[in-house]
């Protein structure tokens, strides 16, 4: 692990805009044409884009790099973010239904970050957990297309769940920007 005084050289793959992650024609988030019509379509579009951004920030790194911590005493890492967002997706899914909540994925509070280690099996599991939990939450929310509907035991508005998802992913994509730059110097949104 690099010392806090060692800084990697900043770089990007982008040639068109030097502050971008990649050039527009290679960016899977780049959509030509008008933005989606309607509130639900817009919320889904933003969720998809931020999910892709997080995965892009993790691409091409070794398990050890994914598990590299930010700055002490924080235990935040890109691998921890993958695990954390899988845990959060499960929480959101639990909020939607009236059935007994599913247990935490990683056990005790903050285990998603604290117990993230640079092992290939854990990296594969984190990606699988995230994809599975995202799909479960997406499927549960698809049953409630009325954004004003209130769901679950706490009667939370479906709109609030969607907005919370966008906010959570956006916030953690900002963390991912900084983590990735500290790991190998790659910059860009």
TrEMBL record:
Taxonomy, superkingdom: Bacteria
Compositionally biased region (Polar residues): 1-12
Transmembrane intervals: none
InterPro entries documented for this protein: DinB/YfiT-like, MST-like
Region (Disordered): 1-40
Protein name (database record): Mini-circle protein
The species this protein was found in: Psychromicrobium lacuslunae
């Amino acid at each position: 692990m690099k010392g806090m005084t060692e800084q990697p050289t900043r770089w990007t793959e982008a040639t068109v805009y030097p502050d971008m992650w990649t050039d527009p024609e290679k960016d899977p988030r780049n959509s030509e044409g008008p933005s989606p019509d309607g509130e639900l379509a817009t919320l889904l579009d933003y969720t998809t884009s931020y999910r892709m951004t997080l995965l892009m920030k993790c691409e091409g790194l070794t398990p050890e790099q994914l598990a590299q911590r930010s700055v002490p005493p924080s235990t935040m890492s890109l691998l921890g973010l993958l695990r954390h967002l899988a845990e959060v997706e499960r929480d959101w899914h639990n909020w939607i239904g009236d059935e007994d909540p599913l247990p935490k994925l990683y056990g005790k509070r903050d285990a998603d970050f604290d117990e993230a280690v640079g092992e290939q099996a854990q990296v594969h599991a984190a990606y699988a957990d995230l994809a599975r939990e995202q799909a479960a939450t997406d499927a549960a929310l698809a049953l409630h297309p009325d954004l004003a509907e209130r769901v679950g035991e706490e009667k939370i508005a479906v709109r609030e769940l969607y907005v919370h998802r966008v906010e959570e992913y956006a916030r953690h994509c900002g963390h991912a920007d900084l983590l990735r730059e500290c790991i190998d110097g790659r910059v860009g949104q």
